[in-house]
Design a protein that fits this description.
The chain is mainly β. The chain has one helix and 55 strands. The longest helix is centred in the middle third of the chain and has 5 residues. The radius of gyration is 36 Å and the shape is elongated.
Length: about 550
């Protein structure tokens, strides 16, 4: 469908933005009537099939036929059934292996090219072979029987054609006039097996053996070790080079499990999205299979936990208050929450703290940390990477009111953006410093000085805001009773403000003549070297969604 991509620098479109894309997805096409169940067709017999392309985007399919031993293709004309559906008919006139290709936007649709063997029925046939819906593991023996008796002195000719080489097929004659044939596939892919007598295929010949190599599968993304009840976790499996097959999952050895749900979505181009969803607390072994065989990194085990069952309590969490320099301790209990890992992340206005976590008894933890920064803090408490109830917990850290203390903190003491407000805080053991003219702040650059505003919060803390007019190096001076506080003067780097008009987007994805296929990455570059300091955001608008 139609997509638009917005590229913004500090909220403003860069030149050329938004960019338009028309996305096609050949994997959404569906063919009815091919492949044939037997893979065979009698000479002169009409082969009918239909192509559905409603969900593939704007375009139409192209159907071609390649005859045995020929490189030239014949294009089949469609019989339109509707705007998004066409039917086709092909009457074979040549014996042998025929290929029917169905392509959309120049790419094969799922299953294409379709193999069709055109034969004249004979009295000979293949027995003891049942590969329908099954796959063979690479290097695994494939065997089948051939029943019948050669007319005169004619001998059987058996061949196996692999993806890149022909294989030797061992044929042994039994005493009753029948034969046993076998071969070992050495690479994944489709193997066409031909059995002929007097130059004519026997019944059932040729047939296809689908060989898979699950060791070629790649699992992308971090495998979960814990999973929250009701929360989805997604990873990707790439199967390129693994041969034909189907991606499936076993949960604790079964297709379904009471603790866990698993869904697999074929995204085309040998890419599958696997989504795991926890249903209740427990443990599970997840086995991802390709063509019925385990892929690398599988099986893996995970715990399903429920952070909503956890509780945290302590004096500081209840009062929402603490003092700088004094340890804060609280307790977390995880009864009935499953197996998980406890993580605690306390943060202040500009500080993060080390945390000590001890399991004092089963499912009970004691947490301790010491704040040193005055101001509003939050304490995140997570069980299995999910917040427990009421997390993050707010805690206001107050000054312990030690005598003659004055400190400054905040990002505005290190960097700022020209023409934009920057801030930092000053904390003192004494209130009313502005009325006493005991607190003085200046921010001075090489060419100019910044305008400074000090707000008294009436609790011993002060908020300083300044605006530097031009980029460059500045120095902030904080004086407490005409004496520089610890760390003063501070060196500040003022960088240019953002200018989206000086950014540039380029690359293959933005070329006006590019053809974009669903499931394939679209790559382009954004040069912000001349755009000043800012944050890059890219938004993509598709037919049904809007993603940053």
């Amino acid at each position: 469908g139609h997509y638009t991509c917005e590229v913004l620098w500090e909220g403003d479109h860069i030149p050329g933005s938004p960019f338009d894309f028309n996305i096609l997805d050949p994997s959404r096409c569906r063919v009815s009537g091919l492949p044939r169940v037997s893979g065979l067709a009698h000479i002169g017999e009409v082969v009918n099939f239909a192509v559905f392309f409603e969900k593939a985007g704007e375009g139409s399919p192209e159907v071609t036929v390649t005859l045995p031993g020929e490189e030239e293709v014949t294009t089949l004309d469609p019989t339109p059934i509707s705007v998004t559906e066409s039917s086709y008919g092909y009457q074979p006139s040549v014996l042998g292996h025929t290929s029917i290709s169905v392509r959309f936007a120049g790419y094969d649709v799922p299953g294409s090219p379709f193999k069709l063997q055109v034969i004249d029925p004979s009295q000979f046939g293949i027995v003891g072979l049942n590969l329908k819906g099954k796959y063979v593991l690479v290097c695994e023996l494939v065997s089948f029987g051939i029943q019948g008796k050669s007319p005169g002195d004619e001998k059987l000719a058996v061949a196996a054609h692999g993806p890149s080489a022909d294989l030797t097929v061992d044929v042994t004659e039994k005493g009753d006039g029948s034969f046993v044939a076998s071969f070992v596939p050495i690479e994944p892919g489709c193997y066409e097996v031909f059995v002929e007598c007097a130059g004519t295929h026997v019944t059932g010949s040729p047939f296809t053996v689908y060989v898979a190599d699950p060791s070629k599968c790649q699992l992308l993304g971090d495998l979960p070790t814990t999973l929250q009840v009701g929360v989805d976790n997604e990873f990707v499996v790439k199967t390129r080079g693994a041969g034909g097959g189907e991606l499936t999952a076993l949960l604790n050895g079964l297709k379904e499990d009471p603790c866990l749900d698993c869904s697999i979505e074929d995204q085309g181009l040998d890419t599958y999205a696997v989504t795991l969803t926890g249903k209740k607390v427990g443990e599970a072994s997840v086995e991802i299979q390709w063509a019925g065989f385990c892929i690398p990194q599988s099986p893996f085990k995970l715990s399903i936990c429920d952070a909503s069952k956890c509780k945290a309590f302590g004096q500081a969490l209840m009062s929402k208050k603490g003092k700088a320099g004094e340890a804060i301790t609280f307790t977390v209990v995880t009864f009935h929450a499953g197996k998980g890992k406890l993580n605690v992340n306390p943060t202040g206005p500009s500080a993060q703290y080390n945390v000590d976590i001890k399991e004092t008894k089963p499912s009970t933890y004691e947490v301790t940390f010491t704040p040193w920064e005055v101001g509003e803090h939050k304490v995140e408490v997570l069980w299995g990477s999910a917040h427990i109830p009421k997390s993050p917990f707010p805690i206001s850290i107050e000054n312990p009111m030690e005598t003659n203390i004055c400190n400054a903190t905040g990002s505005g003491l290190k960097r700022a953006i020209a023409t934009q407000p920057a801030k930092f805080s000053i904390v003192s053991s004494e209130i009313g410093l502005l009325e006493k003219n005991a607190l003085k702040v200046s921010v001075i650059g090489v060419q100019s000085a910044a305008e400074v505003v000090i707000n008294d919060n009436n609790n011993g803390s002060y908020t300083v805001q300044y605006v530097a007019p031009t980029p460059g190096a500045y120095v902030a001076s904080v004086a407490f009773y005409d004496r520089q506080i610890p760390g003063s003067p501070y060196k500040i780097n003022v960088v240019p403000g953002p200018d989206a008009t000086k950014c540039r987007a380029y690359g293959p994805a933005l070329h006006p003549n590019s053809l974009h296929i669903a499931g394939s990455p679209l790559e382009f570059y954004v040069d912000t070297s001349e755009g000043g300091y800012g944050h890059l955001r890219v938004y993509v608008q598709g037919p049904h969604d809007y993603h940053p």
